[in-house]
């Protein structure tokens, strides 16, 4: 239900920017800028996917980059000289998303019963194992050099080349699609089940919600978004290598969510846009600026300091993020009792909580 | 066979370092149920502080004049105190406000704090590996094809000695008892007149100081360090803590040695490349199949 | 098999026997109660029924099945819904969302429908919202449909929890101290509500400390003390039972 009064001017500004994005290349002919925007867009897709896991279902996934790696490598192996296979890009988008989702199920099925913090560490472990495995299996994956000369998409005979413009539109379409799907999920039976689980897992189970299945759905849906982004990323760079999928990537995406507001779709968009602007424009500019006055500091190598500060400061002072809901704020702050109930094994529940 | 014994020796010394770090994880988790993600970085800071202190002693031209033991004692004490302070600051600034928030909130700040500490170290000493001054003469004994170095002995002895001291502290002193009471039931402990904030801060201090010891001995053992050292070591040590039964001091020690063994035996008999994968695989398997650890009782129903 | 029965059910926690060899059968369409002093094991019995705890021994029968040890979502699907002694609403969801969540198990939307908002999914959401609003009217909370659950007064929260439980069309409704924290007027309304629930065809099994209320609406009462059932019968029989008077009424009256 739309309630027009609810919207603030800044909401309208966001809408206006979104509407303007398809026309941006008409104004800005700088290929470098477009390229940066494509990269930012890929991160935004990752953030929309991770938000399903962390924001909607309340599961902290610290190994999200693993699924990005799986999607990227899936495409790279079947669309490059590596094995001499050249599968078409478009079906591979779906297939890679599916493969990533499958790995989501494989990892999630045994682990989703764990308490939230243990789950976070397991996913982190998984996130370390996956790129390391790609590194070690050099026979199939090219080891540290990765796989190069990956095919770029073709559409109606038009060949995506080094020009970033077609990618720009591809990514815009995929973001729009992702946002619609994510919003559909949020406002559905499954989305309500996730919300219930986040608030009180035991009560949720008593509503007939199979909490394990619902979490598994979140986990593998999030993974599929990551896999899909991976395909786009691999074809854009025409190169994948294990170091593209380190813990840093997972943390960058998590910082985007936390900054914008976990669980809020406009929050995710804003958070990822802000961090990308910081990453791709402000920090390099700052380094350049410093260089002109004779200071040789590479600010970009300290971006994780900023992410760290964002994670700490936002969680301490504005846990709902820049664009989160009041509901989320209350959930993250006041709910000591709910926190205790969170993810506990039923039999372990102290009796006061039941 | 010789390879096996050699790898066991390596595993024990690696394990000693992991054990020293694991103690801090286990103590903090035991008392506030937080995975102090920044703990691995506190350990790295232990190495950095040690290097700085030795540098200071050296710069004033006194190192060679001073008895070796004194230098070591000053360095170790300095690293412990400084790391302890870092730990207390972490708790005060990043975690305390979130003590009653959902568990994931302080875990996220802990991850943030970890990145901040890493970058501070990067700012301080740059991104490349830093040599650790070789103040301790390293003697190597040969037994057939097996080598045993004095540094390896030092690591294991330090780890065992500190764990014993910690056990005595926790079970035989008033402060130790306050810590255990707080871990069991914070509200009840408060009613008994225990100062909760003090006790938690003390836990952080001790855990971080032990990580400082870990940083010191690992510096001696490896001969170098770098700002990102704590990420992997921290994760492995956390695995050790879980393996031993989180909250269980002796278990953390045992877990540390097991992890060290797994790593060095994989490296020796399969390949170096797979050693880390093996440890993380163990982490995943332990969390899935035995989240209460080897020594931890399966949480009994509260009565 | 009975419609609903506890058969020699025991639950121990470590050394503590919270429920000891309890048997209790309830007929369809009844309003049945369980009473007993604090710590007698009443809530534990409920938790055993809904699958929160696994019985140490004994069986629980419901609707031609044995359900002891089954998971809560399975038990809910079979047709048992409950409220909690310490209210466990979804605090930061609205009242109507809470009730809609209670309907989860009777909804058919699959992953695909949720992803794409198929026409079938939309129609179902509309129906479920209608049904939730109707239930809110039934418990007289229709004016608070869009309020967050945690903003509602205590007595309202209790009624909202009942509406949420009813959303799954249960055959058996378990109420754990539904009158706790209510004033006399609210208790009066609650009695009417419980009767109305029974008249809609739902069997009611309640735990309650308020003797006036229990004696007034229950057709059958079991009395627990230290985990053991010390008496069972009609309110008249229970009132006259010397063991009950000694164990329970004797202390509180
Ligand atoms: N999860 C648990 N772990 C350990 N002991 C428990 C647990 N749940 C209940 N108990 C114990 O079992 C006994 C029965 O508790 P229960 O909550 O069933 O009592 P009750 O009859 O509902 O009491 P009240 O009227 O106060 O609600 C108590 O001694 C309680 O401490
Ligand atoms: Mg009770």
Give a brief rundown of this model.
Chain B is mainly α and 303 residues long. Chain B is built from eleven helices and four strands, in the order H-H-H-H-E-E-E-H-H-H-H-E-H-H-H.
Description:
- The complex is a heterotrimer of chains A (354), B (303) and C (253).
- By secondary structure, chain A is mainly alpha-helical.
- Chain A has 16 helices and 6 strands.
- A two-stranded antiparallel sheet of chain A has the order 1-2. A two-stranded antiparallel sheet of chain A has the order 3-6. In chain A, strands 4-5 form a two-stranded antiparallel sheet.
- Chain A is globular.
- Chain B has a two-stranded antiparallel ribbon.
- Chain B has 303 residues and is mainly α.
- Chain B has a domain of 210 residues.
- The radius of gyration of chain B is 19 Å and the shape is globular.
- In chain B, helix 1 runs antiparallel to helix 10, helix 2 runs parallel beside helix 4 and helix 3 crosses helix 8.
- Chain B starts with a helix and ends in a 14-residue tail after the last helix.
- With 253 residues, chain C is an alpha/beta fold.
- Chain C has 2 domains: 163 residues, Rossmann fold (3-Layer(aba) Sandwich), CATH 3.40.50.300; 76 residues, no CATH class.
- In chain C, a hairpin with a 2-residue loop joins strand 4 and strand 5.
- In chain C, helix 5 crosses helix 6.
- The model of chain C has no long low-confidence stretch (mean pLDDT 93).
- The interface between A and B is large, with 51 and 49 residues.
- The structure holds adenosine-5'-triphosphate and magnesium ion.
Q: What compounds sit in this structure?
A: adenosine-5'-triphosphate, magnesium ion
Spatial extent as radius of gyration of chain A? 21 Å
Taken as a percent bin, the fraction of beta residues of chain C is 15-25%
Strand content bin of chain A: under 5%
**Percentage of residues assigned to helices of chain C:** 40-55%
SSE topology string of chain A: HHHHEEHHHEEEHHHHEHHHHH
In the predicted model, the low-confidence regions of chain C spanning at least 5 consecutive residues are: none
CATH superfamily membership of the largest domain in chain C: P-loop containing nucleotide triphosphate hydrolases
N-end to C-end Cα span of chain A: 35 Å
CATH classification, class level of the largest domain in chain C: Alpha Beta
Structural class of chain A comes to mainly alpha
Q: What do the pLDDT scores of chain C average to?
A: 93
The multimeric state of the shown protein is: heterotrimer
Number of strands of chain A: 6
